[in-house]
């Protein structure tokens, strides 16, 4: 059996998604189970979380990991909490996180990371080349 065929069979046997979209995951799961004190400034959440690109990226990563790991009945959800939810929530809810300006409702005064132009040829080194068969290749 080829690797592609085995992967296809594995994907076909995987349970359907518990949450059909990122908004469903946030509203129907996270918002119901995450309980933090929000009135003392130690944790911040923005009801317009979808207006923060970093929040979308982190929450999407949490959702995808949740959907994958929930099928492991032994330690899947523990793995999800420890290695995905806890670290992402720590950043998301931090007073210095993407919701830092949203204590009184959505506000965005965040600045993007500054970037300088990369020198030509810098990424030509073989160490930066994605090889055929590279597990990180897209």
Secondary structure layout:
Blueprint: H1 3-13, H2 22-33, H3 53-69, H4 76-92
Helix pairs in contact: 3-4
Pfam family, one: DUF4913
Protein name: DUF4913 domain-containing protein
InterPro entries: DUF4913
Largest sheet: none
Instruction: Give the overall shape.
Output: flat
Percentage of residues in DSSP E strands = under 5%
What is the number of helical segments per DSSP (H or I, 4+ residues)?
Answer: 4
> What is the end-to-end distance?
22 Å
Q: Can you describe what's shown?
A:
By secondary structure, the chain is mostly helical. The protein has a domain at 46-108. The chain has helices spanning 3-13, 22-33, 53-69, 76-92. The longest helix is centred in the middle third of the chain and has 17 residues, at 53-69. It is flat, with a radius of gyration of 19 Å.
Based on the model shown, name its key terms.
mainly alpha
Brief sketch in words of this structure:
It is built from four helices and no strands. By secondary structure, the protein is mostly helical.
